[in-house]
C-alpha cells in the first residue's frame, strides 16, 4: 500500500533553539527530590522538643563543621573539574574530579563515625525517641543521596582514567554536577535545621 | 507555506513469530507502544477494580447482608480505591500522554525513551506487587492478606500494633515503587514538552493537551514525592522501630494526614487535568470551532496547578484544626473553583455558535460537561467546612469524588478512546456499539452516583461493611447497586467494540475527523518515527492552516 | 423521617450548619440552573442540522470582555460563600461556655465508646446520657474527644457535625439538644474491622431523668448473693483483665465498664439489643454478633455462661 501525507515545510531558515534535555530532566529530578526532603525536614522541625524521653539534640549533637566544609568545597572542586574538561585539560579534570570524590568520601566517613558514636556511646538509635527517628531518617536520606552521587562520580572517574571522557562530554558532566550541587544545597538546609535550629 | 508530498510503500514481509513480537513489546522504548501498554494495563485493572466494587455493592444492597465478612469488605474498599487511582487512572493518564504528546508537538519520541520504558515497568510491577498481597503474608489461608487500611492508610491504624502481618507493607511498597515510575514519567513529559517541540511551535502554539500534560507532570513531581517520603517514614516505623506516626511515643497521626493529603489533593488534579485536556481537544473538533479563549485556558490551568497545592487540608476539616486553619482551607478550596468553573464556560462558548456533531466522543464529552458541573458544585458544598462536618467521611463524599473520577475523568477517557482509536489502530470503531456503550453507562452512572448522595445526607458514613435498617438508607443503596449492573454492561460493550473494531472495523485514513492538530497529519497508526519530516508550524491549528490556506489561523490568533 | 438526617437539627451547632447548608445549596442550585440551562440550550440550538451545507461556522477565538465577566461573578460568589462559612466556623468552634455546662470525656476504642463524667466520678460506656438544654437557660454538654488506640469520629447528625477522636490529639465539641429523645449516629472514621458497628446512642434526658441516671451510675455495683457463682466466674476468668465493675476487684479498662450494664438498651456498642438471648450469645461467641470485635470467645461452659449472664443481668 502506498501512503502519502501532506507535510508543512520550512520555507526559510527559522532560528529554533530549545533548552537542553539533560538539564531540564535533571531540574525535574531535583524538584522531586527537593519535595521529598522537604517532607523529612518538616517532620524533623515538627518533632523538635516533642520527644517524650532523651537523649536530646543539645546533649549529644556537635556541629560537624569540618565535614560541612569538605562537602561544600566539593561543589567548588567539581565545578573546577568540569571547567577543566571544557578546556580539554583532561589531567586537571581528573584531578579535580578525584578530589571531589575524596571530599565526599570524607563526609560520608565522618557521618559514619558520628553515628557510631551516637549509637554505641550515647545510645541514640532510630527507635529511641522522636529525635532519634527524625534525625537518622533525615541525615540518612541525605547520606544515601551522597552515596548515590559518589557512585555516579566514581563511574565517571573510572571512565576518565580509561581515557573515555572527552571535551564533548563536558555538558553531560555539567548536568551530573547539578545533582552534586543539589546534594550540597540539601546539606546546608539539613545542617541548619538539625545542628542550628533543632538544638 | 508550501507543502511537500512524501510517499512510500509498505514492504511485503511475512508476519513474524509470536515470541519475537512479544519480545518487541516487552523491550520497546517507543512512546506509542508504551502508551498502549499503559492503557491496556489500566483496562485490565479497571475490570478488576470494577469487580471489587461489585462485591461491595452486593454486600450493601440491603441492611445486614452476609455476602462477605467485614474483613473481606474492608480489603475490597482498600483495594478498589488503591487500584482505581494508582493502577487505572494514573496509567490511563500517562498512557494517553505518552502516546499523544510527542505526536502533538511534532517530535519523534519522548525525551528519555529508556526512562519511559523503565517507568512503565515500575508501575506495572507495583500493581502486581499489590495484588500479590492476596497470596502473600499469611498465605493462602482464609481470604488472603490484601491491605485493609483504606486507600489513604491513616496512622496509627497502619502501625504494626494495629496492622500486624504484611498487608500494609504490600500497600506501601507497591505504591512506593509505582510512585517512582510516575515521577520518572512526569520528568519525561516535562522535558519532552520543554525541549522537543517542532520548529515554530512556541509554548503559545502548543495544543492544550500539551499544556495540561505539562501542568500535570509538574504536579506529579511535586505531589507524588511527598507520598513517597511519607511511605518511607511508615516503613521506618514498621520495620526499624521508628516513631514518625507512633502516637504512643508522642508521634502525630495528624502529620500522616497532612503528608498524605499534600499528595492526595494534587493527585486528583493530576487525574482530572488530562480529562480537561481530552475535552479541550475533542469539543472544538466536533463543534467545528477553535477552543474559546486559549490563553485564559492556559492561565486557568496553571492557576489550578498552583492553588491545588494549597487546598489539601479540606480533607481534614474534622480533625480539629483551629478556626483560622479551617478558614484558610475553605478560602483556598473555594478559590480553586474559579479557574475550574471558568473552563466549563470556555467549553460551553466553544460549542456556542458551532455545528455540533454528536458522534460518540462528543456524547461522552457533553455528558462530562454536565457531570463535571455537578461534581464541582458538590465540591463547593464540601469546601464549606461546617457543611463538611456533616458531609465529610459520608457517602456524600464518596458520591462527589466518583462523580469526578467516573463522571468527569472516565467519561472523557472513553471519549479519548473513541476519538483516537482510529489513530492508534488504523480502524474506525462501530458507532452503534459506541452509542450503546454511552447510554448504558450514562444510565448506570446516574442511577448509582446520583442516588449515592442521599444516604450521605441521611447520615451514612463511608467504609462500613453493613448498616442498620430504619435509617432511610436501604432503598437508596438498592438503587445504587442496580446502577452498577448497567455500568458493567456498558463497559463490556466498550471492550467488545474495541476488539471487534480492531479486527473488523473499516480502515481509517489519517484524519477521519477532519481535525487540526499534528497527530492527524501522519498515518494511522503512525509509523515508528512518527513523521517522515518534522513539521513546522505557524499557529495552534497547523492542519487548519493547510486546509484553509486562504483563511489561516495565524492571521487571527491572539 | 431518617433518625440521622442532617436536615433535622435539634441542637445549636447542627442548626448553624443547617442554615449555612441552606445558603450554600441555594447558591449552588442557582449556579446549576443557569449553567445547566445554557448547556442544554447549546446542545439543542447548535447541533449540526441534517441539511447542513458542510461549511465551517464562524471561527471565534475568544473574547476578553466575556471572559472577564465570567471570572468576576464567580469571584464574588466565592467571597460571599467564604464569609458566610467563616462566620459559622467561628460560632461553632468558639462557643460561649455557661457555668452549668456539662463536661464529658469521650474516649474512642476499637469498637466501643467510653464516657467519663469527671465532675460526678462516673464511668460508663456506649450510651451517652446528657441533659436537655433549655434555650432560655442553656445547659450544653461539652465533649472532650480522646482515643485509646486509632482514629475514630463522633457523628450524631441531629446534634452536631462530626469531630474526630485522634490519639495524642485531644479535640473538643459541644451539643445543646433542645428536645429530649434518643439520637443515633455511628463512628465516622474507619478504625478497623468493626468500624461499622461502633454505633452511637445519645439519650437526651429531662433534667430530672438525667440527675436520676447520674445518681444510679454513681452507686457502687449491686452485690447480689443470688448471682455469687457468676460473679466468681467473672472474677476468676480473664474478664477482669478487660472489664471493670465498681466496688469489686474487676478494674480492667480495655473493655467497657460493666458496673451498670443493665442500664443500657444495647450491647456491643449498639450492635445488638441487650436481651438475655443476645447476652448469652455474646458471651459464648462475640464473633456471632460482631466478628472482629476484640472480645475473645472465652470458651466458657454452658453453665458458666448462664451464671455470668445472670451476674451481669444483676448489674442494674
Question: Could you explain the architecture of this structure?
Answer:
- The complex is a heterotrimer of chains A (199), B (558) and C (316).
- In chain A, helix 3 runs antiparallel to helix 6 and helix 4 runs antiparallel to helix 5.
- The model of chain A has no long low-confidence stretch (mean pLDDT 93).
- Chain A has one domain: Cytochrome c oxidase, subunit III, four-helix bundle (Four Helix Bundle (Hemerythrin (Met), subunit A), Up-down Bundle), CATH 1.20.120.
- Chain A contains six helices and one strand; from the N terminus they run βαααααα.
- With 199 residues, chain A is mainly alpha-helical.
- Chain A starts with a strand and ends with a helix.
- Chain A is elongated, with a radius of gyration of 22 Å.
- Chain B has a single domain, classed as Up-down Bundle (Cytochrome C Oxidase, Chain A).
- Chain B has 558 residues and is mainly α.
- The two termini of chain B are 20 Å apart.
- Chain B is globular, with a radius of gyration of 24 Å.
- The longest helix of chain B is centred in the N-terminal third of the chain and has 35 residues.
- Among the domains of chain C are: 74 residues, Helix Hairpins; 89 residues, Immunoglobulin-like, CATH 2.60.40.
- In chain C, 36% of the residues lie in helices and 18% in strands.
- In chain C, strand 11 and strand 12 form a beta hairpin.
- At the B-C interface, helix 3, helix 7, helix 8, helix 9 and helix 10 of B face helix 1, helix 2 and strand 9 of C.
- Strand 1 of chain A pairs antiparallel with strand 1 of chain B.
Amino acid at each position: 500500500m502506498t501512503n502519502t501525507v501532506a507535510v508543512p515545510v520550512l520555507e526559510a531558515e527559522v532560528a529554533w533553539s530549545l533548552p537542553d534535555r539533560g538539564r531540564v530532566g535533571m531540574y525535574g529530578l531535583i524538584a522531586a527530590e527537593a519535595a521529598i526532603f522537604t517532607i523529612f525536614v518538616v517532620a524533623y522541625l515538627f518533632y523538635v522538643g516533642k520527644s517524650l524521653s532523651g537523649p536530646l539534640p543539645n546533649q549529644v549533637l556537635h556541629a560537624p563543621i569540618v565535614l560541612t566544609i569538605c562537602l561544600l568545597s566539593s561543589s567548588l572542586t567539581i565545578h573546577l573539574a568540569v571547567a577543566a574538561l571544557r578546556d580539554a585539560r583532561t589531567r586537571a579534570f581528573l584531578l579535580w574530579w578525584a578530589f571531589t570524590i575524596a571530599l565526599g568520601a570524607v563526609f560520608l566517613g565522618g557521618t559514619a563515625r558520628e553515628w557510631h558514636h551516637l549509637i554505641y556511646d550515647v545510645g541514640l538509635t532510630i527507635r529511641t525517641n522522636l529525635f532519634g527517628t527524625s534525625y537518622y531518617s533525615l541525615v540518612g536520606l541525605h547520606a544515601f543521596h551522597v552515596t548515590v552521587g559518589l557512585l555516579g562520580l566514581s563511574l565517571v572517574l573510572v571512565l576518565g582514567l580509561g581515557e573515555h571522557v572527552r571535551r564533548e562530554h563536558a555538558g553531560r558532566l555539567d548536568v551530573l554536577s547539578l545533582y552534586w550541587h543539589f546534594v550540597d544545597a540539601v546539606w546546608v538546609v539539613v545542617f541548619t535545621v538539625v545542628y542550628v535550629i533543632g538544638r | 507555506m508550501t507543502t511537500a508530498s512524501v510517499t512510500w510503500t509498505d514492504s511485503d514481509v511475512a508476519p513474524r513469530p509470536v515470541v519475537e513480537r512479544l519480545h518487541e513489546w516487552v523491550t520497546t522504548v517507543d512512546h506509542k507502544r508504551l502508551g498502549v501498554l499503559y492503557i491496556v494495563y489500566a483496562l485490565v485493572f479497571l475490570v478488576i477494580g470494577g469487580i471489587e466494587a461489585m462485591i461491595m455493592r452486593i454486600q450493601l444492597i440491603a441492611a445486614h447482608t452476609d455476602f462477605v465478612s467485614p474483613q473481606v469488605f474492608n480489603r475490597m474498599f482498600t483495594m478498589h480505591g488503591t487500584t482505581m487511582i494508582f493502577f487505572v487512572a494514573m496509567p490511563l493518564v500517562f498512557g494517553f500522554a505518552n502516546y499523544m504528546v510527542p505526536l502533538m508537538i511534532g517530535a519523534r519520541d519522548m525525551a528519555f525513551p529508556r526512562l519511559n520504558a523503565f517507568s512503565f515497568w515500575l508501575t506495572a510491577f507495583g500493581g502486581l506487587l499489590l495484588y500479590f498481597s492476596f497470596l502473600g503474608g499469611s498465605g493462602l489461608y482464609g481470604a488472603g492478606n490484601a491491605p485493609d487500611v483504606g486507600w489513604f492508610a491513616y496512622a496509627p491504624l497502619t502501625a504494626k500494633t494495629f496492622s500486624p502481618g504484611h498487608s500494609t507493607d504490600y500497600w506501601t511498597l507497591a505504591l512506593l515503587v509505582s510512585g517512582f515510575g510516575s515521577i520518572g514519567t512526569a520528568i519525561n513529559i516535562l522535558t519532552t514538552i520543554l525541549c522537543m517541540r517542532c520548529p515554530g511551535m512556541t509554548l503559545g502554539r502548543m495544543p492544550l493537551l500539551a499544556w495540561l500534560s505539562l501542568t500535570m507532570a509538574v504536579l506529579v513531581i511535586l505531589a507524588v514525592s511527598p507520598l513517597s517520603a511519607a511511605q518511607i517514614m511508615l516503613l521506618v516505623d514498621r520495620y526499624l522501630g521508628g516513631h514518625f506516626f507512633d502516637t504512643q511515643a508522642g508521634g502525630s497521626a495528624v502529620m500522616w494526614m497532612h503528608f498524605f493529603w499534600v499528595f492526595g489533593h494534587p493527585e486528583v488534579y493530576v487525574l482530572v487535568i488530562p480529562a480537561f485536556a481530552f475535552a479541550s481537544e475533542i469539543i472544538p473538533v466536533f463543534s467545528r470551532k477553535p477552543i474559546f479563549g486559549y490563553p485564559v485556558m492556559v492561565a486557568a490551568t496553571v492557576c489550578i496547578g498552583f492553588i491545588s497545592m494549597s487546598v489539601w487540608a479540606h480533607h481534614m476539616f474534622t480533625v480539629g484544626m483551629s478556626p483560622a486553619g479551617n478558614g484558610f482551607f475553605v478560602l483556598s478550596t473555594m478559590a480553586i473553583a474559579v479557574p475550574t468553573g471558568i473552563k466549563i464556560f470556555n467549553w460551553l462558548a466553544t460549542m456556542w455558535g458551532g455545528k455540533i456533531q454528536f458522534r460518540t466522543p462528543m456524547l461522552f464529552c457533553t455528558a462530562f460537561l454536565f457531570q463535571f458541573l455537578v461534581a464541582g458544585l458538590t465540591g463547593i458544598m464540601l469546601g464549606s467546612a461546617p457543611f463538611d462536618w456533616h458531609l465529610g467521611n459520608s457517602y456524600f463524599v464518596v458520591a462527589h469524588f466518583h462523580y469526578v473520577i467516573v463522571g468527569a475523568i472516565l467519561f472523557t477517557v472513553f471519549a479519548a478512546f473513541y476519538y483516537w482509536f482510529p489513530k492508534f489502530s488504523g480502524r474506525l470503531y462501530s458507532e452503534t456499539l459506541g452509542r450503546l456503550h454511552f447510554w448504558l453507562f450514562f444510565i448506570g452512572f446516574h442511577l448509582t452516583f446520583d442516588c449515592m448522595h442521599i444516604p450521605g445526607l441521611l447520615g451514612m458514613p463511608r467504609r462500613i461493611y453493613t448498616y442498620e435498617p430504619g435509617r432511610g438508607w436501604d432503598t437508596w443503596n438498592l438503587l445504587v447497586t442496580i446502577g452498577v449492573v448497567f455500568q458493567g454492561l456498558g463497559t463490556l460493550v466498550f471492550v467488545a467494540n474495541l476488539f471487534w473494531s480492531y479486527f473488523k472495523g473499516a480502515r481509517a485514513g489519517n484524519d477521519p475527523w477532519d481535525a487540526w492538530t499534528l497527530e492527524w497529519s501522519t498515518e494511522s497508526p503512525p509509523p515508528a518515527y512518527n513523521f517522515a519530516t518534522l513539521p513546522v508550524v505557524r499557529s495552534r491549528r497547523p492542519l487548519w492552516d493547510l486546509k484553509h490556506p486562504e483563511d489561516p489561523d495565524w492571521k487571527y490568533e491572539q | 423521617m431518617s433518625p440521622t438526617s442532617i436536615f433535622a437539627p435539634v441542637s445549636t451547632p447542627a442548626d448553624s450548619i443547617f442554615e449555612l447548608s441552606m445558603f450554600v445549596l441555594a447558591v449552588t442550585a442557582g449556579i446549576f440552573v443557569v449553567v445547566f440551562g445554557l448547556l442544554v440550550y447549546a446542545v439543542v440550538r447548535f447541533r449540526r442540522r441534517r441539511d447542513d451545507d458542510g461549511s465551517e461556522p464562524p471561527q471565534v477565538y475568544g473574547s476578553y470582555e466575556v471572559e472577564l465577566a465570567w471570572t468576576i461573578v464567580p469571584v464574588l460568589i466565592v467571597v460571599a460563600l467564604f464569609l458566610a462559612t467563616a462566620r459559622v466556623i467561628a460560632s461553632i468552634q468558639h462557643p460561649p461556655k455557661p457555668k452549668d455546662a456539662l463536661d464529658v470525656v469521650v474516649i474512642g476504642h476499637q469498637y466501643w465508646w467510653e464516657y467519663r463524667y469527671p465532675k460526678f466520678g462516673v464511668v460508663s460506656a456506649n450510651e451517652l446520657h446528657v441533659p436537655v438544654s433549655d434555650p432560655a437557660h442553656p445547659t450544653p454538654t461539652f465533649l472532650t474527644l480522646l482515643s485509646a488506640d486509632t482514629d475514630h469520629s463522633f457523628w450524631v447528625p441531629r446534634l452536631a457535625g462530626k469531630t474526630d477522636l485522634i490519639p495524642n490529639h485531644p479535640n473538643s465539641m459541644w451539643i445543646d439538644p433542645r428536645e429530649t429523645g434518643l439520637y443515633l449516629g455511628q463512628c465516622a472514621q474507619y478504625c478497623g474491622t468493626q468500624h461499622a458497628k461502633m454505633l452511637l446512642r445519645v439519650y437526651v434526658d429531662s433534667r430530672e431523668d438525667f440527675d436520676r441516671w447520674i445518681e444510679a451510675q454513681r452507686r457502687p455495683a449491686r452485690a447480689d448473693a443470688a448471682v455469687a457463682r457468676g460473679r466468681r466466674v467473672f472474677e476468676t476468668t480473664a474478664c477482669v483483665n478487660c472489664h471493670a465493675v465498681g466496688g469489686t476487684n474487676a478494674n480492667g479498662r480495655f473493655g467497657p465498664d460493666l458496673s451498670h450494664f443493665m442500664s443500657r438498651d444495647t450491647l456491643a456498642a449498639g450492635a445488638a439489643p441487650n436481651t438475655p438471648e443476645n447476652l448469652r450469645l455474646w458471651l459464648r461467641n462475640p464473633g456471632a454478633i460482631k466478628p472482629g470485635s476484640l472480645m475473645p470467645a472465652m470458651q466458657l461452659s454452658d453453665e458458666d455462661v448462664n451464671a455470668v449472664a445472670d451476674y451481669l443481668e444483676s448489674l442494674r
